Amino acid sequence: MIDVPPELPPSPAGKGARGLGNNAPGTSPFPRGEGGQGVRPSPFPVGKGARGLGKQAAMIDMTPEPEADAPSKLALSAPILPASRRRGRASRTDQLFDRELSWLDFNARVLEEALSPNNPLLERLKFLAIFSNNLDEFFMIHVPGMRERMDDETGRQPAERTVINRLRAIRGKLKPMLEKHYDCYCQLMPQLAEHGIRVLSCGELDEDQRAEAADYFEREVFPVLTPLAVDPGHPFPYIANLSLSLAVVVYDPRIGQERFGRVKVPARQALPRLVRIGNGWTFVLLEDLIAEHIERLFVGMEVRGCYPFRVTRNADLELETESTEDLLTLIEEELVKRRFGELERVEFAASVPLHIRSRIISELEATDEEVYTIDGPLNLADFFPIASIDIPELRDPPFTPGTPAVLRSGMDMFTAIRQGDIMLHHPYQSFGCVTDFLRCAAADPQVLTIKHTLYRTSGDSPILEALMQAAEEGKQVACLVELKARFDEENNISWAKQLEKAGVHVVYGVMGLKTHCKVTLVVRREHEGLRRYVHIGTGNYNPKTAAIYTDIGLLTCNPEFGADATDLFNYLTAYAHVENFRQFLVAPVTLRKRLVAMIDREAERHAVTGTGRIIAKMNSLVDPALIKALYAASQRGVSIDLIVRGICCLRPGVPGLSENIRVVSVVGRFLEHSRIFYFRNGGSDEMYIGSADWMARNLDRRVEVVVPVKDPMHLATLRDDVLALHLEDNCQGWDLQPDGRYVRRKPGAGRTRHGSQAILLERLTA
């Protein structure tokens, strides 16, 4: 469940003018490349976005309150509050929730899955790891993004007090969450120990285990360690992003003084953080093993203390693509710099004495708002290997994804698609259907051309293997590899080079935009002539995340979809300008305008029919212009339900502003990732799926594709068997309150538990 599952100027005021100081790395050792494919100007008119609603709301107390019963069933004909209950509009400054605090609320809902006794023990540990991993992303991306937006909103760097107040609000909200996080860890570990899973200190090992651990340290750990002294001749070392370190205090008997040093704990790419001892499931932490043998690194010294701390830095890339001639080389250079961004967070183990903490804070030039004390192991994201241990009684029950009946009939893939559009709902239905589509296209001698967009994929992608096979067999294959996919840049660079070697025509992206759409086009020669087959999805072409993310995919040979896909790829790979598509809604060209128009149309038709209805499911709702349109539709009586997993800046249920809007977040076993938009349209229902959330970045700075669902049966399925299930979820649904709190639903007395993901598992899997 990692969405893991979201490009910045120098740090604004509030960080001080500290920069990198004497610890700054030199300029990049890599010269700018010459030649290469270069970066093509955007064929799309990039909009400035719509700021619409003015400044964001002030900080809001979002402390959760005890669970409440779920509201009555939110059917598709949900009631509309009468106009008589409107008590005047909320002030303009109260119309939007704070974006960063809303994100933290989402992570709090993830944490609740770790706290829930309804989840198996290893799944609860998995959610603790996800919570920790999410926080790393928050401090690497979202906090720097907050500073950048504050610059943009004011046209200048904000006052130091303004930045500090925002950071204090974040810290104030996060502190109790961290306490719950580590309390949960302390509760889980004794329960896991009953099943033979233990994380022990070196002092808790028996004699044989201690001997095995000491041998491992000598063979595997000691040779890669580099102790660093800190004194006038040895300046405080630069500490890279996400580095776990040990601050070491030693006493030098020759001079009678205490000295200070630092040892970097090797990253998990070099050595596992959890060192397995014996043949069972006993582990020690790598930093604890190093601390146990720290005298080996400071020979002749008396070690008086060894204390863990960890640094998080701004990891967003600063890409000046307008002036580059080679995007791939630029990104390779910037990836080197990612480790050296501005400091955003320092984590200390609770055992670190105040004077050691103060020295490190001073050396790092950290502010109080950037310092966090952790009463437990730092970075529980490294506990994913334990959460993955195969002990069935401690895991969620396994399932076998289903396959649509037409694809089980024995007919070939292209014949099946010609029978009618095929809708796939992952992970309940197999992502192998998509893989098979590409494999069939690669092997079919009648297929002439394959075009594909790649945003993220796995390291062993069968889809890209199929593309390379197709190219090697003489088919014309083009792949747009988005090199700017955050944290997947290195993986995508590697795939781009492999694809090029296999003869695939690779395009690296569009200047000024990220290509985030999920589209595959296959052109096949048939008796009637050329026919185009298209796959459009809401999620990435990644078989691994497709097993844990909920997404919708569509396989179709609709001629207009095929023509639009052809135009889209021509615009992505060549010089062209576009103003319209037949069926596709494409950002940044038509999508924003059409979404606003459809929301406004719903309000106009509601005035005639009284049945105005909008349901929208997405990951995040941030865009002020769309929120403004939703508020206006609510004020005209349209009934609106929003299923928003993560950030939601819209304030629902406010009399005179949004009393007809309800917001629910569903957090469960799978990461809710699909984007589905429904409009009643006066009785002529319209349904759309696609890759875009309702955020300015998606609508104005990315190439996104949203398409209509044309098959009436598929439309009804999405409306009645997907959206309605989420609206009725009384197990994993959370209702957003007008004051910003999220209240978890639970079945009332005598009511049946109704978990949307559990129901879909039962209905759709094999």
Task: Give a concise summary.
Helix content is 33%, strand content 20%. It is of the alpha/beta class and 766 residues long.
SSE layout:
Layout: H1 99-115, H2 121-154, H3 160-193, E1 197-200, H4 207-221, E2 227-230, E3 244-252, E4 257-264, E5 274-277, E6 281-285, H5 286-292, E7 302-313, H6 327-337, E8 343-349, H7 354-364, E9 371-374, H8 384-387, H9 413-418, E10 422-426, H10 432-443, E11 447-454, H11 462-472, E12 476-481, H12 489-501, E13 505-507, E14 514-515, E15 519-526, E16 529-537, E17 549-556, H13 559-573, E18 585-587, H14 591-609, E19 613-618, H15 624-635, E20 639-644, E21 661-666, E22 671-672, E23 675-679, E24 686-690, H16 696-700, E25 702-708, H17 712-728, E26 733-736, E27 742-744, H18 756-764
Helix pairs in contact: 1-2, 1-3, 2-3, 10-11, 14-15, 17-18
In terms of DSSP E residues, the strand content is 15-25%
**How many helices in DSSP terms?**
18
For the termini, the CA-CA separation is 22 Å
Anisotropy-based shape: globular
Derived from helix and strand composition plus strand pairing, the structural class reads alpha/beta
Poorly predicted tracts of residues: 1-40, 45-90
**Could you tell me the mean pLDDT?**
86
The domain count comes to 3
**Count of beta strands:** 27
For the record, the CATH class of the largest domain is Alpha Beta
